[in-house]
TrEMBL record:
Pfam families: DALR_2, tRNA-synt_1e. It catalyses: tRNA(Cys) + L-cysteine + ATP = L-cysteinyl-tRNA(Cys) + AMP + diphosphate. It is found in: Cytoplasm. It comes from the Bacteria. The gene is cysS. Keywords: Aminoacyl-tRNA synthetase, ATP-binding, Cytoplasm, Ligase, Metal-binding, Nucleotide-binding, Protein biosynthesis, Zinc. A motif ('HIGH' region) lies at residues 31-41. The keyword Transmembrane helix does not apply. Residues 372-445 form the Cysteinyl-tRNA synthetase class Ia DALR domain. The keyword Cytoplasm applies. It is an enzyme of class 6 (ligase). This is Cysteine--tRNA ligase.
Length: 514
């Protein structure tokens, strides 16, 4: 099937047809850099990085812009509290944001424009809007007049009065209408400011994105993305001022991702229940975090489960993320198994970068699984369904490795060739989702502490000796045989209670934490 994308503007799935054949422009709203990135800040980047990866897999050239809001009320307040400058705080938090993106394999963003580098373009847009009588200056401020925009509210499918009633809108006696929004704010003492035809001041939030999208991607773009919480007022206002400025449709597809939720609540800095990315990475890998965000369809909420870090005795990571870690460990173990069979690292395996229809595989079920994977991705980037197909494929590959005893021989065989082919296909699927690009964490097998490693080796040898002795007793009714096997089971059980998993395979027994 052809790729279909759900657009918030039309409220339906549409066949994806870019403005320029073979090329896609994408703008995704970025962070206001006044505090460290929590895992909720990574949801949008991970999702739209996956969108770009799949579009490139389909053969499109994609240009993706994500802005950095480096001047804002929140930044000014935070900088004052920390006794630093807005510029210093913005740089420090931007660096933190970039490191978090890198940890989660978000590599597809082509441009990171900063709002403060585009002030002149914003002033140009405001002057044009004033010239069209769609905006007005008022005592040093500039406001967009929503009464002059006949279809204002179309993105949210609400009339202006409904939008005003359901949202917090800045109150000012300088406005003509309560719903009018600021394009320019006059400077207050001690705040960062720039000169303009209306006096010293700084831009409003919404005009920043409109300007940067226009300057870097043109008057019309293919995809505009962001979190569901940005639909109003930010995206509604952005759409209104951009289309009023150009007289053309702003974005062909408006994509909004669901947000993180914690049981019946949400993760929010104002509540104090956030999990910063840096803290999360102490307990799970960046790829595990990414995997967690992709196991749900991007338009649905991502459930962390009931968790509050402020509660005494709360687990270090939310239950939803812990479950995702256990699920992703299936693929981590497979990567290690592939390395044992092939002698090469799985994350370094080269795979096709573009879709190749009509491919032949040694095992017909590989073709069937690839077809279903692509069908899910073509259906509005359904990564949750695609991950399910990957689980099916890794199960097939593990059964093949077990039945052919591939870990106990390096001999060339049809089964080994099929295994390697299927492993390459799994890596190809993972590449589209931005997974399997990092080496398995060192803690996955063995462990770094020499004493712990030595004790584990001793326990494994003891268990293997007990198993060998039990297997040597041919009389199945001999009570000693059962007693010996009971001891081996006890060792496995007690280690599992300590978070240690034993893995028996043809070449011996390995152990892992978690």
């Amino acid at each position: 099937m052809a790729l279909q994308v759900y657009s918030t503007l039309t409220r339906k799935k549409e066949v994806f047809t870019p403005i320029r054949p073979g090329q896609v422009s994408m703008y995704v709203c970025g962070p206001t850099v006044y505090k460290p990135s929590h895992i909720g800040h990574m949801v949008g980047p991970v999702i739209f990085d996956t969108v770009k990866r799949y579009l490139r897999y389909l053969g499109y050239q994609v240009t993706w812009v994500t802005n950095i809001t480096d001047v804002d009320d929140k930044l000014i307040i935070a900088a004052e509290k920390q006794n630093t400058t807005v510029a210093e705080l913005a740089k420090r938090m931007t660096d933190d944001y970039f490191e978090c993106l890198k940890s989660l394999n978000v590599t597809g963003i082509d441009h990171f424009p900063r709002a403060t580098d585009h002030i002149s373009g914003m002033i140009e847009m405001m002057q044009t809007l004033i010239g069209k009588d769609l905006a007005y200056p008022s005592s040093g401020d500039v406001y967009f007049d929503i009464s002059k925009d006949e279809d204002y509210g179309k993105l949210c499918n609400r009339d202006p009065e409904q939008l005003e009633a359901g949202s917090r809108i800045e109150v000012s006696d300088r406005k003509r209408n309560p719903g009018d929004f600021a394009l320019w704010k006059s400077a207050k003492p001690g705040e960062p400011s720039w000169e303009s035809p209306w006096g010293a001041g700084r831009p409003g939030w919404h005009i920043e994105c409109s300007c940067m999208a226009w300057k870097l991607l043109g008057e019309m773009i293919d995809i505009h993305g962001g979190g569901l919480d940005l639909q109003f007022p930010h995206h509604e206002n952005e759409l209104a001022q951009s289309e009023s400025f150009t007289g053309k449709p702003f974005a062909r597809y408006w994509m909004h991702n669901g947000l993180l939720k914690m049981g019946a609540g949400k993760m929010a800095g104002s509540i104090g229940n956030v999990l910063n990315v840096v803290e999360a990475l102490k307990h799970v890998s960046g790829e595990t975090l990414r995997f967690f965000m992709l196991t749900t369809h991007y338009r649905s909420p991502i459930d962390l489960g009931d968790w509050d870090p402020r509660s005494p005795g709360a687990p270090v990571i939310p239950p939803g993320l812990d479950n995702a870690k256990k699920g992703f460990d299936t693929f981590v173990r497979f990567a290690e198994r592939y390395a044992r069979i092939s002698g090469t690292a799985y994350h370094q395996l080269s795979v096709p970068r573009e879709r190749q229809d009509g491919r032949a595989f040694q095992k017909p079920e590989f073709a069937e699984l690839l077809g279903r994977f692509l069908t899910y991705m073509d259906d509005d980037f359904n990564t949750g369904g695609a991950v399910g197909v990957m689980y099916e494929l890794v199960t097939v590959l593990n059964r093949l490795a077990d039945s052919a005893k591939l870990e106990s021989t390096q001999a060339i065989s049809p089964e080994r060739d099929a295994f390697l082919e299927g492993a390459t296909l799994l890596k190809e699927m993972g590449q589209i989702l931005g997974l399997f690009e990092q080496a398995p964490p060192e803690r996955a097998i063995g462990g770094g502490d020499q004493i712990v490693a030595g004790l584990m080796s001793l326990l494994i040898d003891l268990r293997n000796n007990l198993r060998a002795e039990a297997k040597g007793i041919t009389d199945k009714t001999n009570p000693l045989k059962k007693a010996l096997f009971d001891q081996t089971d006890l060792i496995r059980k007690r280690l599992a209670e300590l978070g240690v998993t034993l893995e028996d395979r043809a070449g011996g027994t390995d152990w892992r934490l978690g």
